[in-house]
Amino acid sequence: MRSTLILAAVVVIAALLPNRGAAQTTRAPAPQNSLPIKVDSIAKGLEHPWGLQFLPDGRMIVTERPGRMRVIDQAGVLSMPLTGVPAVAATNQGGLLDIVLAPDFATSRMIHFCYAEPREGRTNGSTVARARLVLEGNGGRLEDLAIVFRQQPATTGGLHFGCRLAFAPDGRLFVAVGERFQMQFAQDLTRHWGKVVRIEPDGRVPADNPFVDAKDARPEIWSFGHRNPQAAAIEPSSGRLWVIEHGPRGGDEVNVAKSGLNYGWPIIGYGVDYSGAKLHEETHRPGLEQPVYYWAPSIAPSGMAFYTSDRTPAWKGNIFVGGLVSRALHRLVLEGERVIAEEVLLKDVGERIRDVRQGPDGSVWVLTDSADGALLKITAQAPK
Questions:
Q1: What digits encode the pLDDT tens for the residues 32-89?
Q2: Nearest-CA neighbor of 186 among 100, 275, 255?
Q3: Which residue from 334, 338, 337, 294 is spatially nearest to 317, judged by alpha carbons?
Q4: Residues 6+ apart with CB under 8 A from 292
Q5: Within a 10 A sphere around the Cβ of 213, how many other Cβ atoms?
Q6: How does the average pLDDT of the chain come out, rounded?
Q7: Whether the model pTM is above 0.85
Q8: Hey, which residues are catalytic here?
Q9: Residue 268 to residues 84, 226, 248, 260, 271, Cα–Cα distance (Å)
């Protein structure tokens, strides 16, 4: 009853707020500056790899959903699994998920990672831990591990953990978490489900969070009304947080997650239920944010990276997004907060793309999601 009343109150409040504009119609045209690409398979034998980050020395650290963390060198050699990784709830979509380096990693050696944590009884929830990375020989370990965020409350099931991480320029950590496949709670501010949260690296709540003084709201919440965020990245030119989330059947959304705003799930949207039944009475409502861009039908986006390198000027300022259902890499050309063109790459590879990162040399690196997952390197070639 309480959650129903909260949902009703949020809807009433939203109706009193100004409309934030209309979403861009899917899809944008193909760009005119398309380039041929070269795809190199760097490493294989990863079991459902999920998160990837480059270390300062050019090696990479990667998570595998069953609960392993490894280091990969530029030649594609896999280390032994690191020790000290906590137990994970490797069920359905759950397991060891995203990973980021602390802004001061070069001196602190601290990493943050998100995972589905086994909780009391048979429950679980998205959890963020930090630890010191120690590498030695053909492996290494995590030391000084501490939990800095636990999605509350815990629940049963294995769906919609979200679990993407991004450090803001001010050093605060954004954590995008799913609504655990219980859509009504994305509007409930007493739960972390379907929210982007913002915390200090040690888990403290920033004093300027939008709901820090609100009654019946979790103080960690930054934005709400999200479904199942599967990508998050900071736009280098503006410092804004971009989040990409799964819709149901259709309606995958690209959003710029701003302080205190409501992104509408499940009140509005551009998809239908998996059964084909209608989910939303409308696609717009005053006070609810419209996506920057959406896909219908769904591509099941996962992982994203802003391209910043001078190596390929035609890609600079673009977003690269992995597609699980589309089995492709999507390049989005931006104009402010608008997507003006979209190019689909890697269709001939035919693999689910789980994560995307820009390499130190300006190449684009992706993880493929399978029981025998691979690390691929993509470089643009001169036009023929």
A1: 889 999 999 999 999 999 999 999 999 999 999 999 999 999 999 999 999 999 999 9
A2: 255
A3: 334
A4: 23, 24, 242, 253, 254, 255, 256, 337, 338, 339
A5: 9
A6: 93
A7: yes
A8: 160
A9: 43, 11, 12, 18, 9
Rounded Cα distance between 18 and 131, Å, is 43
Q: According to the 3-state scheme, what is the secondary structure of the chain?
A: CHHHHHHHHHHHHHHCCCCCCCCCCCCCCCCCCCCCEEEEEEEEEECCEEEEEECCCCCEEEEECCCEEEEECCCCCECCCCECCCCCCCCCCCCEEEEEECCCHHHHCEEEEEEEEECCCCCEEEEEEEEEEEEECCEEEEEEEEEEEECCCCECCCCCCEEEEEECCCCCEEEEECCCCCHHHHHCCCCCCCEEEEECCCCCCCCCCCCCCCCCCCCCEEEECCCEEEEEEECCCCCCEEEEEECCECCEEEEECCCCCECCCCCECCCECCCCCCCCCECCCCCCCCCCEEECCCCCEEEEEECCCCCCHHHCCCEEEEECCCCEEEEEEEECCEEEEEEEECCCCCCCEEEEEECCCCCEEEEECCCCEEEEEEEECCCC
- CA dihedral sign of residues 142, 146, 150, 155: positive
What is the percent of the chain with per-residue pLDDT over 70, rounded to a whole number?
93
Residue of 114, 107, 154 lying closest to 130 (CA atoms) = 114
pLDDT confidence of residue 298: 96
Mean pLDDT (whole number) for 346-356: 97
Scan for tokens 């419209």, then name that residue: 290
Is 127 a residue whose pLDDT tops 90?
A: yes
